[in-house]
Amino acid sequence: MAVSREPIMKRCRSLGISPSYLGYSYESKRQPKRSRSKLSEYGMQQREKQKAKFIYGILEKQFRGYYDKATRMPGQTGENLIVLCERRLDNIVFRLGFARTRKEARQIVSHGHILVNGKKVNIASYLVEAGDVIEVKEKSKSSTRFKEIKEANQSFGVVNWLESDIENLKAKVVSMPHREDIDIPVDERAIVEFYSK
User: Fold this and answer.
1) What is the DSSP string of 17-51?
2) Is residue 101 classed as helix, strand or coil in its secondary structure?
């Protein structure tokens, strides 16, 4: 399995995004270096694609697959692409506050701690549907990590399309997300323009 080993803070600075989108609270006091040359249109489109891939922790081949799937769906391709990324199980686990960072959320899923509709799912890219019930496995609830979550009783940007019960480490997907529900700073139209060349 391919793994991205890029330094988080360095990559955030180069893409001009806050580490908080990945669950990190550290903010650098250093001012970001200003680019001497203006980005070309192609460069700007590529940067938007890199931002989306980095935030969701997706590599190129899988991201391109999401784009191809988004083009076949009704509606706007760019919005469909972001919605597909947002529906990933690892992203849902992060949004619910079951993990501190997106990387930790991916690990929690791949280690088999999450049930979807009562069945163990250990695939981070699993796409949730409206009505799905996501919960932490009963055996895992007694672990130190999940006890800390219950005590903290907070979530990282739970949105209106998710219904969360942090006390029982359980949640329900009330409806499918729309682009206006998703707070990531990415211009999806630029990504569509990049791929449609």
Assistant:
1) --GGGGT-----SSPPPPPSSPPPHHHHHHHHHHH
2) coil
Helix H or strand E encompassing 142 = none
7/153 Cα distance (integer angstroms): 29
Beta strands (DSSP E) in the chain are 114-116, 119-120, 133-136, 162-165, 170-173
First to last CA, the chain: 29
* Distance between CA atoms of residues 190 and 93, nearest Å: 28
Cα–Cα dist 68/66, whole Å: 5
Q: Residues 151-174: pLDDT tens digits? A: 776 555 567 889 888 888 899 999
